[in-house]
What does this fold into?
Amino acid sequence: MEALSESYRSKRSALRRPKLRVAEWVTVCFFAYVALISPWFPRRPFLKTQPLLLLLAVAILFLLVARAECIRSWAKPVSIVRDLLPIVTTLVAFKEMGLFQPLQFSHRYESVWIHWDDLVLRHWHLRAVIEAWGSAVPSIFESFYFLVYLAGVFGVVTLYLVGCRKRVDGFLTLYVLGTLLAYSLFPYFPSQPPRIAFPQVDPPQVFTAMRGLNLWILEHGTIHSGVFPSAHVSSAFSAAWAMFFALPRRKVFGWAMLLYAVGVAIATVYGRYHYLADALAGFGISVAAAALFQIGRLFPSRVSGASLWNRRLRED
It folds into this structure.
């Protein structure tokens, strides 16, 4: 009896031991990656020891929150906080990329990318088609661009509403992976958006209130280290792929998110927030993130969000 009692207590203790979720591990790995590569970028005037400090801060934050969830009276509210925390830390990761802003931009990438934009917007008449009905369609695309900041929150809320909260970590794993993979390339492609580098080349001819809001946000809250690849596009498409995985029997949510992601990609190019090359690269990164997630399903492991997701799907 004493042996059984001791075994029960040890199992109960193990169950209450704080553990990071998969999306949290992905986030910590990203901050560790940034801290690791920082010494190889000596000509970035804003870059000092911040990446290492941010890595420690984020890791400690996740561990403290995980520990707090083990306290019975705090478990439920803290668990809800953890469902949103990886989304918040992606914003921190985005701001961190601003540390890699160079002293000056050579525009060697942008001078090539701008020709492709001009081909699509002017010669293939994409801008004319969007603006053919006045401000209505441009306002829709500008709204798509604005709402991309809430794509992750929308996915989490959707899973709550349809009674599939247990799949939130799987959704966030793919969403965060696709977003952070885009961020991870910013230091290698210092670049300026077309609205700044080439303000006279194919700018929108219709100014809307939503465009004014987007420009205000970019003026006060964006970074200036690079625009390639487009994290707006990669995060939107990653949210779509994640929704397909999370709700395989309710594909309407995945298709809706996919349609929205296409709108985001068009909006980034039309609004001159990104080059076409940025949008295509962002899409490619989302596909790569989905492929990595799928590999996790084929090769289960303790740290595989996909395998954990599969077990929970079988439980439903």
